[in-house]
Amino acid sequence: MKNKHNKKRNTAFVFEALSREATVAIIKGDKERKDKVISIVRKHFAGDSLLRKDLECYRSLYENQDLNEKTSQKIIEAVKVAKHLIDPTGLFKQQTEIINDINKDLSPSTFNNFVPNYKSLATIAKMFNTDSPKESVILEAKVIREMCGVIEESQMKSIDSLTYSTFVKKFNEQYDSKLLSEQKELLNRYISSFSNDDLEMKIYLNRELGRLKESLEKAAEVEEIATDPEMTKKTQLVKHRLQKLSNETTLNEATLFTILKTQELVKEIYSGSNS
User: Fold this and answer.
1) Contact at 8 Å (CB) between 120 and 129?
2) Total structural domains in the chain?
3) Three-state secondary structure along 33-55?
4) Which of 130, 148, 178 is the endpoint of a domain?
5) Cα-atom radius of gyration of the chain, to the nearest Å?
6) Do 172 and 217 share a domain, yes or no?
7) How far is residue 162's CA from residue 198's CA, in Å, rounded to a whole number?
8) pTM for this prediction
9) Burial code of 85-120, b = ≥16 C-beta within 10 A, e = fewer?
10) Per-residue pLDDT tens for 72-111?
11) By the 8 A CB rule, do 40 and 98 touch?
12) Are 17 and 145 part of one and the same domain?
């Protein structure tokens, strides 16, 4: 059996921790820090880097949820083959390089960022690294349960309670509790787009902009808005802005904030109409 889990050597954890760091920087308007994070992501996760390939192995497992057991097992087998093809010495070297860059350009505290699915990432890492056949079977079973949407009650409790509560309190009180689920998804996809082909980001944006435009069209029929000339005008202006965004080829920070604000506006409109 190999050494216990080391989160700094967990490629997916490092990527998620960087995503959180960039999210906080964006929310705080700290462009310099955001640019540093994006630079690290682009440098280490772009193209055919081993870190990128390793991250894809993790993602194939923790981003696939609500699957049946048979499909989950097939994905795990395919991932194990892909993982086996990654040169461990080369991967260790690239992990060391990104750890050094994070310590130098950001701060070692980046590794203390709270990552909600940390336990799942740790389980996957242990499954990848164990030499014990028995432990391998047990860990695979846990991963399959999660891929099938079965969340164990003790999952998060097994993380050191003091560390967990500190991370949750620090992030949630300042940032996470202020973000809608759709805003979190937008920010995560925005950050991820710097490490891979942004085709997925464009597809997501088209879908999200379409959803927002449709929501605003329906909102215009809500009595509180339909009878308020000023609100009607503002709604039309936002719809016009979203239409212009649909024709833009790149996503910059101004566009990002426009979408974030629109997501918040739509949520407020519908929350108000249902109250």
Assistant:
1) no
2) 2
3) HHHHHHHHHHHHHCCCCHHHHHH
4) 178
5) 21
6) no
7) 38
8) 0.68
9) ebeeeebeebbeebbeebeeebeeebbebbbbbbbb
10) 999 999 999 999 999 999 999 999 999 999 999 999 999 9
11) yes
12) yes
